[in-house]
């Protein structure tokens, strides 16, 4: 036997031995527990791929298996790609992290002139502008007819909830602005820049940069979600307006190359640099520190000593080691990418069902296997998920039982009909039809439904498309003469995705516009 053959066998054996023990059976148990049809798992260590594998099926009722090339929407795990793209432009001297955004986008405005003037490139990536959680997401979520430029220009009408740089509140819309900066500086759209300057150089041949690619045929996982208590396939989110915040679709084989490159401070397999170690330090450096707090009792092993948000990535410690990580969430897709630089270890878990418990029960089990630690993450997430579901159900029940079901609206139903407008979203139409009230967000096809009387002058918008899972209260306030002064909305369930930022709408009859 030749020396080459012996060394090859030893190399392959080492990789196989370095896989977490019983990982296949464990992943399958987690999937069964949380009703997840398909999972893509990738583990990299010391510059090598330890495991890149698919589990389960792409679509319930289909025999098409998930494999290492099956694409999943990675959602907000795309944000690190946007931060890295800006890092490339910084290295070329075309932009600086602390340059003002208006230097590159003179038309850019927020509601506060001071924040408009002072907001920097770095600020676009770290969720401290003063926006509230998910502010402005209804401009694109669910899919709207606004284009990217229109969304960007409507941000000037969204009131800020806190003072500039004083608080952290996760947003998506400023990543859209980051994409606009990339285009203004490079002459390439965000999509073309990511494809040419990152994906092609890394050899991520099957990764795509558009939300809409999830709806195409091929080796793509179908998104699933529990609808009315039963997990079933749902339509993928297909709007490309916010690709810089979450538009990438990837797979185990390709994401391995991304993780290895980041763990090697930007080095490519041919020894050249995609980006420099200086960019790595910038992207991984905490900008907004958090109080790590105390983990839920069911997940006590997740205790950390520090945490914060860097550039498109979260940073904390896990069992005494630095962890650089992010999650992603879209209808029917949720995911986790986690890097442990000290061990040159990375793990990515993509799913085609909305179970964050699944990706974390797997990811933390993988990390533990390399740290020599043990904790029953599956049992912990089972208990934690059950408790949260109970709390949400109790909140909904309390709201229902406190309802005055005998109360009646102050006005005849037809008096609530009309066009209402919000400064940043636009128009919402309420029509009287067949003795009932219909509601339609005029720029969002999916937000169409019926108003069901709840109590007094509060109704519930029951959306016709039940995949929204976002029924909302709408409460009307009257003037002294009985005319409608304004209306406010908020989600019915505490489990509603935060991107349904109904609570930020201030609706007034169009005549008062």
Question: How does this model look, in words?
Answer:
α3 crosses α10 and α11 packs antiparallel against α12 (377-401). Mean pLDDT is 95; it is low at 1-17. The chain is of the alpha+beta class and 513 residues long. It contains 12 helices and 20 strands. A hairpin with a 2-residue loop joins β4 and β5. It has helices spanning 3-17, 23-33, 79-91, 113-118, 148-154, 173-186, 190-202, 243-246, 252-263, 277-284, 356-371, 377-401, and strands at 38-45, 48-56, 72-73, 224-227, 230-233, 249-250, 288-290, 307-309, 314-318, 321-330, 333-340, 345-351, 418-422, 426-433, 436-441, 448-455, 458-463, 472-478, 484-491, 508-509. 28% of the residues lie in helices and 22% in strands. The strands form 4 sheets. An 8-stranded antiparallel beta sheet has the order 2-1-12-11-10-9-8-7, sandwiched between helices. The protein has an 8-stranded antiparallel beta sheet with strand order 19-18-17-16-15-14-13-20, with no helix packed on it. Strands 3-6 form a two-stranded antiparallel ribbon. It folds into 2 domains: 21-111 and 119-134 and 153-162 and 173-391, DD-peptidase/beta-lactamase superfamily (Beta-lactamase, 3-Layer(aba) Sandwich), CATH 3.40.710.10; 413-512, Lipocalin.
